[in-house]
Amino acid sequence: MKDTLKILILFLVAVLTLSSCEDDDDTLNVPQNLEVQNFIWKGLNLYYLWQEDSPDLADDRFANQDQLNAFLTNYDEPKALFDHLKVDSSIDRFSILVDDYVLLENLFQGVSKSNGMDFTLRFKAGSETEIYGVVNYIIPNSEAAAKNITRGTVFSGINGQSLTLNNYQSLLSGASYSLNLADYNDGAITPNGQSVSLIKTELTENPIFLTKVIESNGKKTGYLMYNAFTANYDLQLNQAFATLKTAGVTDLVLDLRYNGGGSVLTATRLASMITGQFSGQLFAKQQWNPKVQAYFEENNPAQLVNNFTGTVGNAAINSLNLNRVFVLTTGGTASASELVINGLKPYIEVIQIGTTTVGKNVGSITLYDSPTFNKSDVNSRHKYAMQPIVIKTINKDGFGDYQDGLLPTVVQAENPGNLGLLGNENEPFLSTALGLINGNARSITQNKSQFGKEFKTSKALVRFGNDMYINTDDVFILPFIK
After folding, report:
1. Which of 14, 235, 371, 404 shows a CA-CA span of 20 to 30 A to 359?
2. Residue 191 contacts residue 157 (beta carbons within 8 Å)
3. Dihedral (Cα; 173, 174, 176, 177), 10-degree rounding
């Protein structure tokens, strides 16, 4: 995961001793109709974080390939096997299998099928079944950008059906739908008869939504709304920090309210842009399953750490050298966003404003059906790929147990009736941060029961929307050892 590491390592049988079911000619003994299932078992057997907790993934579960084949014949559908081999969903909420790896590759580039509307679903006040939605932001140049909806728009139905716990997934998953709008009044959600038709198309989202310098009380504060850790935008992110650095900002408000996460490498770079004075020191450390962990500790311990860095590729990082940062969060703030917060805490003051984050302290990697599980020499007969959880991350102090979310320093919920304009000094969350920076903060009184409980964000509704992943080109890939 080091930002200059571009090596694919192959090693001999003797390098890593694994008790497995493989013989020298195992690849010849896998029936073609079981190739996907064989790939799933072997990839999870080697990499899965909870491999030891899944009985049918045990290294000594099968004495040879024929026994493994007999087991795999019980699973005609690859997903059924994948779901069987995973541990309970209360532990593993995030591992996924896809039947077309192009989907994953596009998501890593910020490309997805979308109508351009990012939103949060909430339960109606006093209900545990009725749901309504609030628009968080609109992606520029999208389908939604051309329609009469903006941040703060409230909707209560799709295609004339009221949103409920039982139907929201099917209604919102359609390629096109009519959004039934509503009015919000002190917790009361009232349909207003208006509707907006939206169509999902292939859309590329620039995660750097807004960069701004705010001058108040003689101070310059940088504001950055950042909505995804998408590595191919890292140079643009670095340029955004160049703008802030040139302006001479002395504080930063990092808005991660709707950021579901993404690249660990990008998280490391972002943390380095915020600071700069800790280059080369430990930002985060990886914990793999015992056999992969043992291999790295013996052969390449540097692979287990993510250090603050001074470069993005060949470009010098534009660091602000801050000793504190203000981070805005909600129940939609996940994975790599949480990694930045947790990784920075041992070094600088992190003032978190908002609500508790998702609690995703684990990360994944893309596995392809190839001898090394890398894209090289991939099996051309199918496009299945896995994104299993393979690491847990901890910070310099050894802390990483935030599976229930990171608690805010200042508790503040978003008021659906007053979201405010992003980047405006009077926007409630930004106003709180500026008050703390300028020393004139006021206590916040909210009747949160009126807002309704946060349920899910639009990112959480799509596969891989709230993931944290290791860039495949930036990690040593261990092939399955025969």
Report:
1. 235
2. yes
3. -80
CA 326 to chain CA mean position, Å: 20
Which stretch of DSSP H or E encloses residue 67? helix 65-72
**DSSP letter string, 223-272:** EEEE--B-GGGHHHHHHHHHHHHHHT-SEEEEE-TT---EEHHHHHHHHH
CA proximity to 230, closest of 106, 358, 136? 106
For domain 208-445+464-474, give the CATH superfamily: 2-enoyl-CoA Hydratase; Chain A, domain 1 (3.90.226.10)
Tokens 């943390």 -> residue = 271
Q: Among all chains, which residue has been given the structure tokens 């079981």?
A: 34
Tell me, yes or no, if the pTM score tops 0.85.
yes
Q: Which of 91-105, 218-232, 423-437 has the lowest mean pLDDT?
A: 91-105
Distances from the Cα of 154 to the Cαs of 148, 181, 260, in angstroms? 12, 6, 21
The candidate with the shortest Cα–Cα distance to 272, out of 315, 228, 225, is: 315
Q: Supply the DSSP symbol for 144.
A: G
CB 237 within 8 A of CB 267: no
Q: Mean pLDDT of all residues in the chain? A: 90
Length of the chain: 482
pLDDT score of 53 = 97
CA distance readout (Å), 77 to 54, 119, 310: 19, 33, 46
What the block records as the tokens of 319 is 């660091």
In the structure encoding, which two tokens stand for residue 334, read together? Answer: 């996940």
Phi, then psi, of 41 in degrees rounded to 5 = -65, -45
Q: What is the percent of the chain where pLDDT is above 70?
A: 91
Residue 33 CB contacts under 8 Å (≥ 6 apart), including other chains: none
Q: Judge contact between 231 and 1, C-beta under 8 A.
A: no
- Please give the C-alpha separations between residue 477 and each of 41, 96, 304, 375, in angstroms, as whole numbers: 17, 19, 13, 11
